[in-house]
Design a protein that fits this description.
InterPro entries: Amidohydrolase, Bact_exopeptidase_dim_dom, Peptidase_M20, Peptidase_M20_dimer. This is Amidohydrolase. Pfam families: M20_dimer, Peptidase_M20. By secondary structure, this protein is an alpha/beta fold. Helix content is about 35%, strand content about 25%. It contains nine helices and 16 strands. An eight-stranded mixed β-sheet has the order 1-2-4-3-5-16-6-15. A four-stranded antiparallel β-sheet has the order 10-12-8-13. Strands 7-14 form a two-stranded antiparallel ribbon. Helix 1 crosses helix 9, helix 3 crosses helix 9 and helix 5 packs antiparallel against helix 6. It is elongated and about 80 Å long. The two termini are about 30 Å apart. The N terminus is likely disordered.
């Protein structure tokens, strides 16, 4: 007869952890909302997050933890067992150079700076999850180590995530998770997706030059403006025929500058834009392909061309197993109905850099009040339903504790 192995204790322990996570998150909710409001009122731009870093570190120390400050701004903090692989939870600290027009009583006190992307919520959510996990560890309910990452400079390319990758802090991290506010879905719901959830985002600049001349004699010089026109229209179209359309490659120009007189062919002109891509492999090759296509497009027009392609951030490519684990944590602490399939975004997120080294997943945290207005991120009037903080805390703490 085969031996029967009971799994009842594991199920009981899992249920106990989920129950404690929920209880502890509820105990912390009012404190965390107050913390988020303080951070929101005192936003700091990329690599200037001194006050925010100190506030997070002080609260972690008050919980008996030992955060390690990074060079400049940002910090990491370990919780639980020191041996074995760790689970990472990541938050971003920086705000945007926008005026806060939200009208809330805790609006930004810094002129022209606002938490208009929800990083104050991300920071508070990971802090809250860390405080819950610290309590679990003290109660003997945390079986694996956790490392919290409070990262600077997500809003600038190529992103403060590279500050973390430049250290040894990821060496013993086996998996990692993060959240991003989504004001298009209701509070209490969480958007998940296996595969690419955001796009790569690179900067592309093309400069065309020639001796210049008079518009009555275009045949005597390289026509910079005409050549730029071909770059603007033909290069994005050519990329669509040189790369797998399933990779989601998109090159969109945002600015063009050439000349100042209607009857003068200028000697130099520049067009700048962003190259976005949902597929990691296509992204790795797209830069060289852009250069090749641009050079072919302008070759007939007797001009010199310089192409600058600057790596921004890779796609956030969610691991299937970790996304499934995160969804299970949602079911255990919030409920199965809280999970919704999120759309792919062509926006960039430097969490993608972590996923080039460690398997992981990012979820979209619903921040819209049911029946209320739908806001957008990177807008000064962004308002979030602060109940989302408790939802995110429960999800991340349960994921890390599983």
């Amino acid at each position: 007869m085969d031996q029967i192995v009971s799994t009842a204790p594991t199920r009981v322990t899992g249920a106990l952890v989920a129950q404690r996570v929920t209880e502890l998150a509820q105990e912390l909710e009012s404190e965390l909302i107050a913390f988020r409001r303080d951070v929101h009122a005192h936003p700091e731009l990329s690599r200037r997050e001194t006050r925010t870093t100190a506030a997070v570190a002080d609260r972690l120390r008050a919980a008996g933890l030992s955060p390690r400050l990074l060079e400049g701004t940002g910090l990491v903090c370990d919780i639980g067992p020191a041996d074995g692989p760790r689970t990472g939870l990541r938050a971003d600290l920086d705000a945007l150079p926008l005026q806060d027009t939200s009208g809330v009583e805790f609006a930004s006190t810094a002129p022209g700076v606002a938490h208009a992307c929800g990083h104050d919520v991300h920071t508070t959510t990971v802090l809250g999850a860390g405080l819950v996990l610290a309590r679990l560890a003290s109660e003997g309910l945390l079986s694996r180590g956790v490392r919290l990452f409070f990262q600077p400079a997500e809003e600038v390319m190529p992103g403060g995530a590279l500050d973390i990758l430049g250290t040894s802090e990821l060496d013993d991290v086996e998996r990692i998770a993060a959240v991003h506010c989504d004001p298009k879905i209701d509070v209490g719901t969480i958007g998940t997706r296996i595969g690419s959830i955001t796009s790569a985002a690179d900067a592309v600049s093309v400069t065309v030059s020639s001796p210049g001349g008079h518009t009555s004699r275009p045949h005597l010089t390289g026509d910079v403006v005409f050549a730029l026109g071909q770059v603007i229209t033909q290069v994005p179209a050519a990329l669509g025929r040189r790369l797998d359309p399933r990779s989601g490659v998109n090159l969109t120009w945002g600015t063009v500058q050439a000349g100042s007189m209607p009857n003068v062919i200028p000697s130099v002109g520049t067009v700048k834009g962003t190259l976005r891509c949902l597929d990691v492999a296509a992204w790795e090759n797209a830069g060289d392909l852009v250069r090749d296509v641009v050079e072919q497009v302008v070759k007939p027009y007797d001009v010199e061309v310089t192409v600058h392609h600057t790596r921004g951030v890779p796609p956030v490519d969610n691991d299937a197993a970790e996304t499934t684990a995160l969804e299970e944590a949602i079911r255990e602490t919030i409920g199965a109905d809280a999970i919704v399939l999120t759309e792919q975004s062509m926006g960039g997120e430097d969490f993608g850099w972590y996923l080039t080294k460690v398997r992981g997943t990012m979820a979209r945290l619903g921040t819209r009040t049911p029946g209320g207005r739908t806001y957008d991120i990177h807008q000064g009037d962004l308002v979030v339903d602060e109940r989302a903080i408790g939802v995110g805390v429960r999800m991340l703490a349960q994921y890390a504790a599983r």
